[in-house]
Design goal:
The chain is α/β, with parallel strands linked by helices. It folds into 2 domains: 4-282, 3-Layer(aba) Sandwich (Rossmann fold), CATH 3.40.50.300; 289-423 and 468-483 and 498-536, Rossmann fold (3-Layer(aba) Sandwich), CATH 3.40.50. 39% of the residues lie in helices and 21% in strands. The strands form 5 sheets. Strands 13-12-14-15-23-22-21-18-19 form a 9-stranded mixed beta sheet, sandwiched between helices. A 7-stranded parallel beta sheet has the order 5-2-6-1-7-10-11, sandwiched between helices. α5 (115-133) packs across α6 (153-165). Bound molecules: glutamine. Glutamine (GLN) is lined by residues 358-360, 386-387, 410, 465-468.
Length: 539
C-alpha cells in the first residue's frame, strides 16, 4: 500500500499537547490494524536535543539507537508500545547540515541552493524514504511549534507540496480560551489562526480544539464555518483526567471513522482485543483506588515538570499496574542543601518512596545527597536513576564507609575519593554532541538481589545517557561495607546497578523511565511502587 499522510499542525501557542494528539491519532490507526508511525519535525537549528537544557526545553529523550530526541518521542512510545528509531526525528539542524554538506560536495553545481525547491524537496524525499524503509501504511507528521513561526515556514510549504503527491490529511490543533468575565468560549484567535494556515495554501481537514471545558456546540459551528469544513470535523479535546484518555475521547466523537474515511482506509480490520487491552489500562490510570502513596522526586529541574516527564509517566504506569493512587511531591534539591533536620522532615517526611532522577551540573547535588541519606536511614524505599545511582554510591561512601568528601569528579575534580569519574575514552572528547554513553546497553544482574527480583531475569537492556561511571577502584571497599553491586555490563567492566541491603534502595546507571510504556510498565518501577506501598500506603 502506498503510504498516506496525516499532518498535525498547531496554531496559536505551543504546549497544547500536539504530541498527545499525534500519539492518539497514531494509536487509533493502529487499533484498525494499520502500520502507522509518527514523524516529528522541529524547526530549531540544533542537530538534535542532546545539547539542550531540560529546564528550557523539557526532557531529552533517548532512543535505543542512541538518538537524543524531543520529549514527544516519549509520548509516542508510551502510547504505541513500540520502540522508535532516530530517523523519525527531523530537525532544522539535520536538514541544513545535510543540504550544506551536499552543496560542498558539489551536488548542486551551477545552481543557487534555495528553500524551494531544494530544501522542500529534501524534506519530502526524507519523509518518503522513511515511510518506505518502515513499510508504513500511514505516517503522522507532527510539525513542531505553531504555524507562522519562521523556523517551520519552509517545512509547512513542503507539507503543502506533499499533499500534491500523496493522499494527505491536515489536522490543526488550536486553543479555545474562555474569558472568566463573560464566561464564553472565544473563537476569534482560532479564526485568525486558520486564516494564517490558509495563507500557506493549506486547508485543515480536521480541527481539534483544546479548551478547559467541553466545547460548546455553537462554537464548533462557528469554527467550522470559518475553516470551510463540516461541523462534524471539529473535535473537542478539553482537559481530561489523563492524557491516555484522548484516543477514546476522539473515537467517541467519531474521529476514527472520519479520519479513515478521508484517507480512504477500511474499517474492517479493527482489532477489538487490542483496543480492549488498551482501554483496560487507561481505566486503571483514571480509577480511584483504595490505597494511596506519596513519592518524592528530589531534583534540580522540579519547577519544570516536563523535564521529568518520562519519570512521571513511568510512575503513573506502575501505580496503575499495582492499583494504587499516586501523588508526586516535587522537591527542589537546592532547598535541602542548607536545611536542618526539621526542614528535611518537613520537605521529605511522609514520603512512601523517594527518587533522585538524572541530571547534570553541580547545582543542588548536596541536597540530593541529603535526601538519599534521609531515605537510607529512615528505610524509605529509594530509586536512583543515573545521577541518582551515582549519588547513592557517593552518599554510601561518605556516610557508611567514612570517606569524607567522597564525590563524583563532575562536581569536585580534586576529591580524594573519586567514587564516580570519567572513563578514559571520555576524557579526550572535544565535541559535546552525541558523545555520551548513549542508547541501549545490556546489564547482567546477580541472582538473589532486589534488582534481579525486580526484573525477574539476569540480562536486561536499558537506555543510557551519561558520561561518568562508577569507579571500579572502589567496588571492593563499598561492597565490603554493604553496598551491593547488583549488576554490571556483561564484561564486568562497568557498574550498572547498586543496592542497599537493609531496606529497598536500588540505583541504576540507566534510565529505565525511558522504556516504560502504558501497556508495559518498567519492572523496576513496579518493584519500587510495591516497596513504597509496603512502606505504609495510606488507606
Ligand atoms: N551527570 C551525570 C553523568 O554525566 C549523570 C547523567 C544523568 O543523570 N543522565 O554521568
Amino acid at each position: 500500500m502506498r503510504t498516506k499522510y496525516v499532518v498535525v499542525l498547531g496554531s496559536l501557542l505551543s504546549g497544547l499537547g500536539k504530541g498527545i494528539v499525534t500519539s492518539s491519532i497514531t494509536k487509533i490507526l493502529s487499533f484498525y490494524g494499520y502500520n502507522a508511525m509518527p514523524m516529528k519535525f522541529d524547526g530549531y537549528l540544533n542537530y538534535d536535543c542532546g545539547t539542550m537544557n531540560p529546564f528550557r526545553h523539557g526532557e531529552v529523550f533517548v532512543l535505543d539507537d542512541k538518538s537524543e530526541v524531543d520529549m514527544d518521542f516519549g509520548n509516542y512510545e508510551r502510547f504505541l508500545g513500540r520502540d522508535i528509531t532516530g530517523d523519525f526525528s527531523l530537525t532544522g539542524g539535520k536538514i541544513f547540515s545535510t543540504i550544506i554538506s551536499r552543496e560542498r560536495r558539489g551536488d548542486f553545481l551551477g545552481n543557487d541552493v534555495q528553500f524551494i525547491p531544494h530544501v522542500t524537496d529534501y524534506v519530502i524525499n526524507k519523509i518518503e524514504e522513511t515511510s518506505k524503509n518502515h513499510d508504513l501504511d500511514v505516517m503522522i507528521i507532527e510539525v513542531g511549534g505553531t504555524v507562522g513561526d519562521i523556523e517551520s515556514s519552509y517545512f509547512i510549504e513542503a507539507m503543502r507540496q506533499l499533499a500534491l503527491r500523496h493522499e494527505t490529511v491536515f489536522v490543526d490543533l488550536t486553543y479555545v480560551p474562555k474569558l472568566d468575565v463573560v464566561g464564553e468560549q472565544k473563537t476569534k484567535p482560532t479564526q485568525l489562526a486558520i486564516r494564517s494556515i490558509m495563507q500557506s495554501g493549506i486547508t485543515p481537514n480536521f480541527i481539534i480544539c483544546r479548551s478547559a471545558d467541553q466545547l460548546d456546540e455553537d462554537v464548533k459551528t462557528k469554527i467550522a464555518n470559518f475553516a470551510n469544513i463540516p461541523r462534524e470535523n471539529v473535535f473537542d479535546d478539553h482537559d481530561l483526567g489523563s492524557i491516555y484518555e484522548l484516543p477514546y475521547h476522539l473515537m467517541l466523537q467519531g474521529f476514527d471513522k472520519k479520519l479513515l474515511g478521508s484517507l480512504g482506509l477500511q474499517r474492517s480490520k479493527f482489532g477489538r482485543k487490542k483496543y480492549n487491552a488498551w482501554s483496560k489500562r487507561v481505566e486503571r490510570v483514571s480509577h480511584r483506588w483504595s490505597k494511596s502513596i506519596i513519592v518524592s522526586i528530589v531534583g534540580k529541574y522540579t519547577n519544570l515538570h516536563d523535564a521529568y516527564i518520562s519519570l512521571k509517566e513511568s510512575l503513573v504506569h506502575a501505580a496503575a499496574e499495582e492499583g494504587v493512587n499516586l501523588s508526586i511531591r516535587w522537591v527542589e534539591s537546592e532547598e535541602l542543601e542548607n536545611a536542618g533536620a526539621g526542614k528535611i522532615v518537613s520537605l521529605l517526611g511522609g514520603s512512601n518512596g523517594l527518587i533522585v532522577p538524572g541530571g547534570f551540573g553541580s547545582r543542588g547535588i548536596e541536597g540530593m545527597i541529603k535526601a538519599i541519606e534521609y531515605s537510607r536511614t529512615n528505610g524509605i524505599p529509594y530509586l536512583g536513576l543515573c545521577l541518582g545511582m551515582q549519588l547513592m554510591s557517593v552518599e554510601f561512601a561518605r556516610n557508611v564507609c567514612g570517606m569524607k568528601g567522597a564525590n563524583s569528579t563532575e562536581f569536585n575534580r580534586n576529591t580524594r575519593y573519586k567514587i564516580i569519574r570519567l572513563m578514559d575514552d571520555q576524557k579526550t572528547i572535544k565535541y559535546k554532541g552525541g558523545t555520551m554513553r548513549l542508547g541501549l546497553w545490556p546489564a547482567k544482574i546477580k541472582h538473589g538481589t532486589a534488582s534481579y527480583r525486580a526484573y525477574g531475569k539476569g540480562l536486561v537492556y536499558e537506555r543510557h545517557r551519561h558520561r561518568y561511571e562508577f569507579n571500579n577502584a572502589y567496588r571492593g571497599r563499598l561492597e565490603k561495607a554493604g553496598l551491593k553491586i547488583s549488576a554490571t555490563t556483561p564484561n564486568n567492566m562497568l557498574v550498572e546497578m547498586v543496592e542497599w541491603k537493609e531496606s529497598f534502595g536500588i540505583g541504576t546507571q540507566a534510565h529505565p523511565e525511558l522504556r516504560s510504556k502504558l501497556e508495559a510498565p518498567s519492572p523496576l518501577f513496579i518493584s519500587f511502587i510495591r516497596a513504597a506501598e509496603a512502606h505504609g500506603a495510606l488507606a
